[in-house]
Description:
It is a multi-pass membrane protein. Residues 576-641 form the Mechanosensitive ion channel MscS domain. Its main location: membrane. This is Potassium efflux system protein/small-conductance mechanosensitive channel. There is one protein chain. With 737 residues, the protein is an alpha+beta fold. Among the domains are: 2-111, Helix Hairpins; 135-411, no CATH class; 647-728, Alpha-Beta Plaits, CATH 3.30.70. Helices cover 69% and strands 7% of the residues. The longest helix has 48 residues, at 63-110. The termini are far apart.
Amino acid sequence: MLKQQVSTAKTDKQFTSLNNDAQLLANDTEQLMATLEPQLAQVVAQLEVLGPAPTNGTLTETTQVVSQRKSLNSSKALLTTQIEQAKVIAIGAQNLSAQIDEMRRGALKTQIALNTGTLLGEAFWTPLLNPSDQDVARFNKFSSQLRDAWQQAWDKEWQIGSAVYLLLALTIGLFGRRVLDKPINWILLHVLPQGRFRRSFLASVTVLECLLTLGICVQLLCHIFTRLPVTSLWVHEFAGQLVGLTYFSSLVAALGISLLSHRQPSWRLPGIADPVVKILAPFPAILATSIFIFGTFEQLNALVGASIELTLLGNGLLALLVGIIGLVAPLRVNRIRRMMRDEGEESEVRSTIAGLIHLAISLTSMVIILSLLIGYIPLARFISFELLWIGLVLSCWYLLANFVVDLCDIVFSPTTYCGKMLKSSLSVNDRHLSLADTLFTGLGKTLLLLLATVALINGTFGSTTPLELLNNVAEIWGGKGLEGSNIIPSRVMNALLCLVVGLYVLRSTRRWLDKDFLPKTKLDRGMRASLVTLFANIGYVLIIMLTFSMLGIEWNKLAWIVSALSVGIGFGLQEIVKNFISGLILLTERPVKVGDLISISGVEGDIRRINVRATEIQLSDKSTVIVPNSQLISQNVRNATMGNAQGVATITLTFPLNIDPEQVRTLLLDAYRQHESILEAPAPSVSFKELGPNGIVLSVTGYVISPRIVGSTRSDLLYEILKMLRNAGVDLSQSQK
């Protein structure tokens, strides 16, 4: 009956009630055995007094003795059976209790919206005030193993090595950064050129210093125990977990120290005011220390198999500290900024993204504390670790992105040593260096953003400890990639994150290509626009495919989608598909491109944009005509700028028969040559078109730089020609063609 109830239980209250019932059953059976065992011993003693039954016929017993022996044997058999049954029931109840504990542990990891009791309740603090005997026994066992390992490390055959490792660990932990600061400062002042790269280099090196000194220090301390031949498995596992937790917490502290740069304000990478930095300076160390202490407590609980109540205590306390730090820090920052504004002091300029991050941290911290108060400790703990991981990834991305940008500026700058070496060795000019700077900067930032996205996807939505966060990201390099992550809330969250980040990366890259990289090349404006549009179309397709992949949809199982699309194309989407294919042809074959002056179906204007479905043509009156792409493929199109970008300004005039043709020819050529828009080569020319009863027809032709100015140039020439003919006394025929 109890096992059936366990199989159908879903909430933590049901698990807790069933666990109490199982423990009560185990206690009752143990009490029953404690009651039955003396009775069994008494019966056995009475049987020993009676002695064994006679086997030969010489000895006879009274009826009373035989009856008493029979009764005692029956009681012995009954008591033995009852004790055995009680043992089976007790063992089963204990196993069931352990099974319920495992189910509750699994529920804590998979069901983040599990109500386990409020932080203010007595049950939450019971493991601390009144720990259970089982927890005390488990921790005593671990402490005894750790004590044995420590004693063994200082045995005669191991004490020299232990002393060396301990001395190295203390030296690196206490003086490692001081030793590394001297060569780093020398490199900053004597090797690196002046500029922003010095700040990003110092910030990055500061993070590496903290990671190496603290990480190596703890590794050496743990190696004192792990190198021993008879060290227990618990000590080995705890040492490995402690090293990973050290790197995680030290990274949190190192990023805070590096980005805030409290002791060196002039080298600070982000633009944060000094009073704000003084307020924020203690929080990274406090947060890192809290993560290390309570992370160690969680790892110990998982290692020794502590009770769920003790696990919830550690989870709740860590979530509480993260929530308090995330709430107090923004409040103190807002307070100091208000004081600075009231006193008229200059504060830093905050961007919209910085304001959104500030608001998101505050709201998330409020959600954490509220979840703890109403009893959702797993949810609060889940949000706490997601907040820590997202902040860690974004901080690393910001630091590395600045490092990459500043590094590219130094390497490809024509004024630095590296830039001069590149110019001399590769025979490139400043424009090529600027182009390489833009290219490698964009590639580096895009690669970092993709790595940050992968880290967020593998670290969030399923990691329950800092070590699991690091292990999930490490699986990328082990070949598992995104497929190895265990996404607990839903794959939809990963798909949405992939979609949002993918669109952001695509739009940022498209804007970078359009505004920064391609303008520095020798490509014409039409080719640049075609490349940007083609890149965007391919990018959207790849993002959609990746989003479906994150949802777990296999393309070989989407036959119904293909069928639906086929039906849709047959009934109403064929025009859209035709225009889409035509758009791809226009972008690749380029019979027309952005910036061309075309004429189609009586519409003449400049192509401004080639979209997926249609092309935008701007007319001379600045209005826009939308032409489907299929028409540009299937109809006759006049492209005035495709083969030759020059325009032709031709004026045909009719003169009386009594004029001097040579004089008029000279006047017309002079008018064309004097106009600033007429090109010298090919030179203007006058053609004798016709001689008839109405007069002499002369045609004058000149070339201009673009067909777009033919109309205005022709108008100016007509004004000038009429003025020159009037001054020369030459009349026009009344009949003009």
